[in-house]
Amino acid sequence: MTTLAPTTARYAPSALNRLFWAVERLPGGGWWVYPLMFLALVVYHHAALWIIGSVPVGSPSLAGVPALAFGPYALGAAHLFVRIGGRSMAAFRPASGLSDAEKEAILGGNLVKLLRIET
Question: How far apart are CA 54 and CA 61, in angstroms?
């Protein structure tokens, strides 16, 4: 019978971790990045429609534009949830009885990373 024991080895930060960290380092907390990402997608969408000739050049088309909001909205929501989770862990850590070192050993300072389980 094998037992599962968590180790201190962790996975490398994901692309989402790196994106969230980069956004947080921007001026104003970086929350303006997500609406800007939506606008960039709308511009790209319209440029593609004009280039392929689906719509006359210079005329706007709202077809498909609402669907472009889902990507930036989902990234922004995930960023918000990770941030709220981190603040909640910091607020409730004293009640858990864990020291800062124990919390760091368990979470590694990041709620998105997963522990490696060795068998």
Answer: 10
